[in-house]
C-alpha cells in the first residue's frame, strides 16, 4: 500500500518502467529500426549511403533461390527432426515409468537422460564434431571393426548428421514433458481400466495418450521454435557447408547480415522468416487444438 | 507371465540402448579431456586414456580458456541478476495491479516475439545499436542484451508464482504496520522463494549456454566460452583434448543446477 | 465515545456498486456487527475502515480525525481475514509477534503480551508450530491472537466463522463475547449469519446491495425492523410473508388474502386508505399448532413437510392454495404429512409492510424501548 495523495489507485509504474525500458531499448526499438532499414539498400562496408528501395528487398528475398532452398532444408531438419524427438521422447518416458519401478533409480536415469539438454548447443556440437570427422572416433571404431568409414559431413549426409545431433541433445525436452505429464495422470484410472480387463494397448490409446496430448503439443511447439531459431550446430559443425548443403534459413540470414553485410536485405529476410515462423506456429496450434 | 517378462526385457533393453546413445558422447568427451593430444587420433581408439593426464585442463585454465570462462561467469551472473530482479518487480506489478490494455498485453507480446523470433533476427539491429554507441565487445552490452532477452521469460514464470500467492497475506502485513518494502522483504520474497530459485536456474542455463549473441556482440575483447570453443579448432593441429576439457568445465554448473532443480524443472514444463 | 466513524461512503468496482452512501458511527469498546448476504459490501466496508481500500466518495474518521487517505500500516487497526492470512513461513509465535515487531516492542514485552493472549485463546501449546500444520479452528484463534495482541484502536473481523464447522462456531461465539469484555476491545464483525449478530453484537448494521437497511441495536433490528429485508433476514427460520390487501369490512380494517383474514384496525391507523397491497409477516415461533391456546387468529391447513432442526421442529402447513406457513415448534414434534392441523397466532404479533418493503407496523408487546 502506498501513501495516497488522491482517491485514485496509484499504479506503481516505477516497478514496471525499468523492465519496460530495457525491453524497449534492446528489443522493440531495434526492431522498429529493422523495419526502417528493410526498405533500404545498405552495405555499411561499402558506403554509409542508404538508398530507399521500397519493398524491393522483400520481393528479392521471395525470389531468392538460396533462401527458398534453405526454407526447404528447415522443413526437413526441423519437421522430421522434431517429430523424431517427440516420438522417441514419449516412448522413452513411458518405458521409464512402465519398466523401472524403483523411484530412486528412475530419477537417476531421468537425470542422466536430461544431461544433453542442459549443455550449450555449442558444446554439444563440439563433442559430436570430435566423433564424426573423417578420422573421428566413430569412423575409427568402424574401421577397427572392419567396416568402411562413413562421410558424416559429406554433402548427402551432413544435414542428417546435424539432425541426429539435435535429436541426441533435445529428445530430452519432450521426454521431460512426457514424463511429467505421465506421472500426473491419476493412478486410479489405470487401476479401474485393469479391473475392466483392458489390454495394455487399449490403456495406452484410451488413457495415456489422450491425457498427454496437450503437453506433447506444447513440447512440439517449443522444440520446433528452438530448432529453427538456433544456428549454433550448423555454425560449428559444418559452417553451412559443404557448399550450401546445411544452410538453414537462420544461417543464411547470419551470412547475409554479418558476412556479406547486406543489412537492408538481411532485415527484410528476417521479417519474412519471422512471419513464416509465426504463421506456421499459429497453424500448428490451431491444428493441435482441433484434433 | 512369460509374455510380460519378454516385454519387460525389451523395454529395459531399449532404455539401455538409448542410454548408450545419450551417454557415449559425454563419456567420450570426458575420456578425451584426460588424454594427451596424440592419444586422441589413435586407431583403434583408446576407451580409457593411455596415459592419464591433466595437461589439457592445466592448459585451458592458464590461457584464454580461463578468461573465457570467467567472462561467461561475470556475464551470466550479471544478466541473470538483472533479469530476475527486474522480472520480480514487473511480475509483482502485473500480478497485483490492473494495468490498462497496452502495458499488460504489451508484456505478453514482448514475451512472444522474443520467444518466437530467431535471435539472429534481433541481432542485426542490436549489433548496430551497440556499434553506434561504441559499446560492442563490452561486458555491459552483453549483460544488457542477455538480461533483456531473458526478462520476458522471468516475468512470465514469476507472475505465475505471484498469482498463486494470496493477497490477504500481504494485506495482513500492512495491517500489522509494515510498509510496502518491508512487506516485500518479510512476506513476498520468502513465499515465492522456490519460484525465484527456479527462475534463476532457468535464466542461468539460457544465458550460460548461449552462442550466437556471444559470438557477434563479443568475441575479441570480451570472449565467452561458447564463442571461444570454435576458435580452439582453428590452427594446424586441433587440440581436441583441450576442447573436451573446456566442454567438461562448462557443463559442470548446468549439471549442478539440473541435479538441484530437477523437481522445479518438471513443474515449470508442466505449466 | 465514538471511535470510528464513516460518512457517506461510496465505492464501485467497475459498474458494480459495492457501497452506496454508507454512514455509521462505531462506539468505543462496543461489539459492532455488519450483517449482510455475500456481496452486500461487508468486506468492502471493513477494508475501507482498515485502510486497504480508498472510497470514491465519503470519509473515514478515527477519533474525529480524518484518515480516509491514510494507508493501513499507519492506522492502528487489526484485521482477521476470512482466510486468516497467516504467514505460512513463520511459526505461530512469530505470526502473533508480527504486529509487535512492527512497532519495535522490546523482546520480553513481546513475550509477555503473546503469553497473555495465547493463554486466553488456549493456543499456548501451538506457539512453536507452523500454521500449516494446525487445524482450522486453531488457525483462526492464531489470527485472532495476532489481531488482539497489539491492542488496536479497532479490530476488524471478516467472516471469521464461515470457514469453521458447526460445533467450533458455537464455541467461538461465546468466546468472542468474553474476549471482547476481557480486552475491552472495539470490534467490528462482518458476518452473513444473523445468529452471530444476535448472540454477540451490541450494534448491528444491516447491508443489502451496498445500501444501509438499518443501523440500530440488534434487538431493535429484530423487533422493529425498518423494512421487509431486515425482518426476513434476522431470525431463523425466516419470517412468513403473505401478500394481501387492506379492506374495510363492517367499519373495521381487515387484511385479506383470498380466504385468509386478519383484523388490523388498531395497527394501521390513518394509513388504511393509502395502502392497498400490504404484506403480512408473522414469525414462525409465533405460530402455534393445535387448539390448546386461546388465539385470536385461527386458520386450518394441511401439513406438507416437517423437518427436525437440531432439537426443534419446523412444520410447513399449507393454509391456502398459494400459501404455506412455517411454524417453529420447540422440541421434537411428530406430525404426519397430509394431516390436517389448526394454526393460530395473536393478532398483535403480526408485522405489516408496504408494497415497497417499508415497515408499516410491528408488534408492540415486545418492544418497550431500550
Query: What is the architecture of the largest domain in chain C at the second tier of CATH?
Result: 3-Layer(aba) Sandwich
Strand order of the largest sheet of chain C: 6-7-8-3-9-10
Q: Provide the helix percentage of chain C.
A: 10-25%
Question: How many domains of chain C, as an integer?
Answer: 2
Structural class of chain C: alpha+beta
CATH class (first level) name of one domain in chain B: Mainly Alpha
Largest sheet of chain B at a glance? none
> Under CATH, the topology of the largest domain in chain C is which?
Rossmann fold
Going by CATH, the homologous superfamily of the largest domain in chain C would be P-loop containing nucleotide triphosphate hydrolases
Largest interface: A-B, 90 and 93 residues
* Largest sheet: number of strands, sense, barrel closure of chain C: 6 strands, mixed
Low-confidence stretches of chain C: none
Distance between the termini of chain B: 39 Å
Strand content of chain C: 35-45%
The fourth-level CATH homologous superfamily of one domain in chain B is: MetI-like
Shape of chain B: globular
Number of helices of chain B: 13
Portion of residues in beta strands of chain B equals: under 5%
* CATH A-level architecture of one domain in chain B: Orthogonal Bundle
Beginning-to-end CA distance, first to last residue of chain C: 19 Å
Task: Describe this structure as you would to a colleague.
The complex is a heterotrimer of chains A (291), B (271) and C (370). Chain A has one domain (67-290): MetI-like fold, CATH 1.10.3720.10. Helix content of chain A is 73%, strand content 1%. Chain A has 13 helices and two strands. Chain A has a two-stranded antiparallel sheet with strand order 1-2. The longest helix of chain A is centred in the first third of the chain and has 35 residues, at 65-99. Chain B is mostly helical and 271 residues long. Chain B has a domain at 64-234: MetI-like (MetI-like fold, Orthogonal Bundle). Chain B has 13 helices and no strands. In chain B, α3 (55-62) packs across α4. The model of chain B has no long low-confidence stretch (mean pLDDT 84). Helices cover 24% and strands 35% of the residues of chain C. In chain C, α2 runs parallel beside α4 (136-148). Chain C is an alpha+beta fold and 370 residues long. Chain C has a six-stranded mixed beta sheet, with helices on both faces. In chain C, strands 13-12-11-14-20-21 form a six-stranded antiparallel beta sheet. A five-stranded antiparallel beta sheet of chain C has the order 15-19-16-17-18, with no helix packed on it. The model of chain C has no long low-confidence stretch (mean pLDDT 86). The chains are: A mainly alpha (291), B mainly alpha (271), C alpha+beta (370). Chains in contact: A-B, A-C, B-C. Chains A and B meet through α1, α3, α4, α5 and α6 of A and α1, α4, α5, α6 and α7 of B.
